[in-house]
């Protein structure tokens, strides 16, 4: 009887060691996942739904069982949120949800959320000008080109840019 128990323990230990070596982890709700638009998200208990970080602790249940609004997750908000859901701005007093980073908008107020290697340069739907006025950082959406409102300090959005 002792030999069988010891053998079972060895097999169990081998399975756990193999899982660790392969990088397999037991599932837990809220683990890092990617949303449909390839942004960091929150994985619901059903392991099928992944919601954007900004929908966690927003007082609206987005997961079927409401785990995105649980006290354990939202009780000491934003400190109780997992680190992958939060981006700390360069001014440590401010933070934004991780899915708001690199979205072209100045969510931090100092453009720190739009800088660095994680953020791509302006895409084809954007016009590059710096400094940008108002809510953008170094690019504006091309839909704002020639709209009669100055968005770039050098006015290039009104005279050079084409929508």
Topology record:
Blueprint: H1 2-21, E1 32-34, E2 40-43, E3 50-52, H2 71-74, E4 86-88, E5 95-97, E6 126-128, E7 139-141, H3 156-159
Antiparallel strand pairs: 1-2, 2-3, 4-5, 6-7
Fold and architecture overview:
This protein has one domain. The chain is 17% helix and 13% strand. It is built from three helices and seven strands, in the order αβββαββββα. It has helices spanning 2-21, 71-74, 156-159, and strands at residues 32-34, 40-43, 50-52, 86-88, 95-97, 126-128, 139-141. The strands form three sheets. The chain has a three-stranded antiparallel beta sheet, with no helix packed on it. β2 and β3 form a beta hairpin.
Order of helices and strands: HEEEHEEEEH
- Strand content is 5-15%
Give the number of DSSP strands: 7
Integer tally of domains: 1
Structural class: alpha+beta
Q: What percent of the residues sit in helical stretches (DSSP H or I)?
A: 10-25%
Describe what is shown at a glance.
The chain has helices at residues 2-21, 71-74, 156-159, and strands spanning 32-34, 40-43, 50-52, 86-88, 95-97, 126-128, 139-141. By secondary structure, it is an alpha+beta fold.
């Amino acid at each position: 009887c002792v030999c069988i128990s010891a053998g079972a323990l060895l097999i169990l230990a081998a399975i756990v060691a193999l899982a660790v070596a392969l990088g397999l982890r037991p599932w837990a709700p809220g683990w890092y996942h990617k949303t449909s638009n390839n942004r960091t998200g929150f994985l619901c208990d059903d392991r099928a739904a992944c919601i954007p970080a900004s929908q966690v602790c927003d007082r609206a249940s987005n997961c079927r069982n409401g785990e995105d609004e649980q006290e354990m997750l939202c009780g000491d908000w934003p400190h109780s949120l997992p680190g992958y859901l939060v981006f700390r701005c360069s001014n440590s007093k401010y933070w934004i949800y991780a899915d708001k980073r690199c979205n072209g908008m100045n969510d931090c107020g100092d453009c720190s959320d739009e800088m660095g290697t994680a953020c791509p340069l302006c895409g084809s739907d954007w016009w590059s000008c710096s400094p940008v006025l108002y809510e953008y950082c170094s690019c504006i959406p091309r839909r704002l080109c020639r709209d009669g409102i100055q968005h770039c300090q050098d006015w290039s959005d009104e005279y050079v840019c084409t929508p």
